[in-house]
Design goal:
Blueprint lengths: L1 H68 L10 E3 L5 E3 L2 E14 L1 H6 L7 E15 L5 E13 L8 E5 L15 E2 L3 E3 L4 E2 L4 E2 L3 E3 L5 E2 L6 E2 L3 E2 L5 E2 L5 H10 L2 E2 L6 E8 L2 E8 L11 E5 L5 E5 L3 E8 L2 E6 L3 E9 L24 E6 L3 E3 L24 E3 L2 E4 L10 E3 L29 E16 L4 E2 L7 E9 L15 E2 L7 E8 L9
């Protein structure tokens, strides 16, 4: 009996041992399979990653480079397919890029109103697909694909805080940056930039010339890079994109061949366009045309002839242009801003918004002029009353200003009206001489305050905003300019684009994304 029990125990032990060995064997086989699958999946993921970088290379070196190499008139206005890249070694894989395309993105004007104008193509979607040759365990080779896309955008001239074609005036006089000048945004000119004393530049300074003009006490402060011999920036003399936008939106205003004068005022309700008989005083009760335009995100307004403009509580995103001179007759400020609330110790706050995000562009096809009005300090307003009283001095401008001008006329400046040239001045007299020895203000200055600008200032030819001793002992405005950094990537609508010498756009990447092929699920 004991022998039988012992034999049973031995038999049971052998059976359990065999079962355990089978379990261990199956576990080992499963582990080896799992290890193999994980290795395979890891290599597959590596192939997918490599395909992504190949696609990115195709979009950059084939697509973006193609856009940057073409002149403005050579850019495609329909989808364009580019040649595939050649197959090559990429780490442990072979691969290439294919399906590289350029897709134009038209502005909303073209999409909604069928405006057939290539200038309304603001950006392109550049796409490419990367392909990697991937060997499976059974020896078969499959293509692993992944796509990459980027948006290539035409850069706006509002990327610059300050820009000029010509740093001299129309009388070929050099205008200097002086020690009291402080510029808080990127500066660029096609011309020599002249400096005296210790002006301060907080962002890059770029010129197409080989050096600066160094004046008396030259000792500027640069907080960022300086660049010389840069390609020249081309400057249109017509706001063609804005004109087309205004015509499409029904906000293009003719002046009846010069018979009407136009004024635009911004207020809490929107833009108020008023036109009356040229040569007669403004009278809001006696208008030939009276139009209200609500604020929106893509407003384009264009006026024939000259334009008077002012505004407060401005909202939305708007560009306003005119074919003549644009006269700023009072402040131009955004919603939420009240200059009268500032005290002298807090003037810097003039540059900041109060919880709003409006964008305004002002485009003059000739000059943009600070008008000689009572609100802007006419008649020595800066020396009358407290400096912080904005009712009779200063002008506050929150906008991107661009004076396109024309090479043939020498116009295209941001400047000020009635500069008190003497009647015998060789550069001419504009009929205004505040300090006329035989008048009521003999010997008086005509200092009008300061220009407080938060935005952008671009012009063909640099213009005076202050004159010295020969002009009534001092005439015009101090400068307090700061860059509206939002305009680097969010320009006013239909604002002129930056084109470089050779008529090319230096497209920048404004966004990017990838398209992943459907993930394999046979290993999960």
């Amino acid at each position: 009996m004991k022998m039988m029990l012992r034999n049973d125990r031995i038999g049971s032990l052998l059976v359990n041992s065999v079962i355990l060995m089978l379990v261990l064997l199956m576990t080992g086989v499963a582990f080896l399979k799992w290890t193999s699958d994980e290795g395979y999946q890891a290599r597959f993921d590596l192939a997918r990653t490599q395909a992504y970088y190949i696609a990115q290379r195709g979009a950059l070196e084939r697509g973006l480079a193609e856009l940057r190499s073409r002149t403005a008139v050579e850019l495609p206005n329909v989808l364009m397919t580019l040649p595939n890249g050649g197959e090559g070694e990429y780490g442990e894989f072979r691969g290439y890029y294919k399906d590289c395309t350029l897709t134009p993105v038209w502005s909303v004007l073209n999409e909604n109103m069928s405006i057939d104008d290539d200038a309304l193509i603001e950006e392109y979607v550049v796409s490419a697909t990367g392909v990697v040759k991937f060997r499976q365990p059974n020896g078969e080779v499959e293509d692993v694909e992944r796509s990459f896309n980027l948006t290539a955008t035409k850069p706006s001239l509002s990327k610059y805080f300050y820009f000029t074609i010509d740093e001299n005036t129309q009388y070929d006089e050099v205008i200097w940056f002086f020690g009291r000048d402080v510029l808080y945004g990127p500066v660029r000119s096609n011309d020599f930039i002249a400096m005296q004393g210790r002006p301060e530049f907080f962002m890059s300074v770029t010129t197409s010339m080989p050096n600066f003009i160094e004046g008396a006490g030259y000792n500027p402060i640069f907080h960022a890079d300086t660049l010389f011999n840069a390609p020249e920036v081309l400057f249109e003399n017509k706001a063609n994109e804005l004109r087309a936008g205004a015509q499409a939106l029904g906000t293009y205003f003719d002046n009846r061949d010069g018979l009407w004068t136009t004024r635009i005022e911004g207020d809490a309700l929107g833009w108020h366009v008023m036109q009356w008989d040229a040569g007669t005083p403004f009278d809001e009760e006696n208008l030939n045309n009276d139009v209200r335009i609500s604020y929106a995100q893509n407003r384009a307004i264009f006026v024939e002839g000259n334009l008077e403009l002012k505004g407060e509580q401005i909202s939305g995103r708007t560009s306003i242009g005119c074919e003549g001179d644009m006269r700023l007759i009072d402040d131009v400020t955004y919603e939420g801003f009240t200059p009268h609330s500032l005290d002298e110790a807090n003037q810097a706050n003039i540059y900041y918004l109060v919880g709003t995000d409006p964008i305004l562009g002002l485009i003059g096809e000739q000059n943009i002029v600070i008008a000689n009005t009572d609100a802007n300090g006419k008649g020595n307003g800066a020396n009358e009353g407290a400096w912080t009283d904005h009712s009779n001095k200063h002008i506050v401008i929150q906008a991107a200003l661009i004076a396109l001008g024309d090479e043939s006329t020498g116009r295209g400046s941001v400047t000020f009206e009635n500069q008190n040239n003497r009647p015998d001045d060789p550069n001419g007299w504009d009929g205004y001489w505040w300090c006329d020895p035989e008048g009521d203000h003999a010997g008086e200055q005509d200092e009008r305050g300061a220009i407080y600008l938060r935005g952008v200032i671009l012009m063909r030819q640099r213009g005076y905003v202050h004159r010295g001793a020969n002009n009534c002992g001092g005439t015009g405005y101090d400068k307090e300019y700061a860059y509206d950094i939002r305009m680097w990537k969010t320009p006013p609508p239909h604002f002129p684009k930056e084109r470089l010498d050779g008529d090319r756009y230096e497209f920048y990447i404004s966004s990017s994304w990838d398209q992943d092929p459907e993930r394999r699920n046979d290993f999960y």
